[in-house]
Amino acid sequence: MTRENGGFWEKFAAVFFYPIGWGTGRVRYEGREHIPAQGGALLVANHISYLDPVHTALYVHTARRTPRFLAKHSLWSIPVLGKVLVGTGQIPVYRQSADAGQSLRAGTEALRDGKIVVIYPEGTITRDPGGWPMHARTGAARLALSSDVPVLPVVHWGTREVYDHYNKRFRPLPRRTITVRAGAPVDLSAYRGRPIDAGVLREVTDLLMTRVRDLLVEVRGEPAPAEFYRRGSAS
């Protein structure tokens, strides 16, 4: 299978991402057969550590595709990183501003252009004490319904054991297993053609995150909470 050509900046990023990925754990990338060899797809992922994007990127790249992330716009102001983000076609997210809808339009356009787009619907690293997905924002649902492409649930597990941001703990040793797994595309046929209103967006968001949670149950081998954690909830 021919690799998607991401250009110079993708190769530049790979020089750094691969050593970081292999250096932070024993990787186990599963379910890559669900990523289409060509054409657009939306990857809807949980978020437990700032290491997740490194491993999501490698997961997609080792499937011979180039990932486009929706990420907070402040990253574009970081020297060198900003150039890499622009050069690899990443998508800045402007929250709570007049440009807030721009990222969703750019994401929809990327999907229609046959790109792989990655979104973390929780919007930040989960605050759930057990590392389960939180109540999510509806941007992923809007992207999923605005583009007729496969929508894949994706989970990470093991990255938080290496780097736990909230507890300021980085423990690369002893080496841990880091799992990234994609599941089969979510069937959204019941929602196609319906008006995209707040109720539909909430319903589809919860469906997508339920599929993500179910996939994480498989990876972890333990039951998940019945309800999604909400920010501000008691621990």
From TrEMBL:
<keyword id="KW-0012">Acyltransferase</keyword>
<feature type="domain" description="Phospholipid/glycerol acyltransferase">
    <location>
        <begin position="41"/>
        <end position="159"/>
    </location>
</feature>
<dbReference type="GO" id="GO:0005886">
    <property type="term" value="C:plasma membrane"/>
</dbReference>
<dbReference type="InterPro" id="IPR002123">
    <property type="entry name" value="Plipid/glycerol_acylTrfase"/>
</dbReference>
<protein>
    <submittedName>
        <fullName>1-acyl-sn-glycerol-3-phosphate acyltransferase</fullName>
    </submittedName>
</protein>
<dbReference type="GO" id="GO:0006654">
    <property type="term" value="P:phosphatidic acid biosynthetic process"/>
</dbReference>
<keyword id="KW-0808">Transferase</keyword>
<dbReference type="Pfam" id="PF01553">
    <property type="entry name" value="Acyltransferase"/>
</dbReference>
<dbReference type="GO" id="GO:0003841">
    <property type="term" value="F:1-acylglycerol-3-phosphate O-acyltransferase activity"/>
</dbReference>
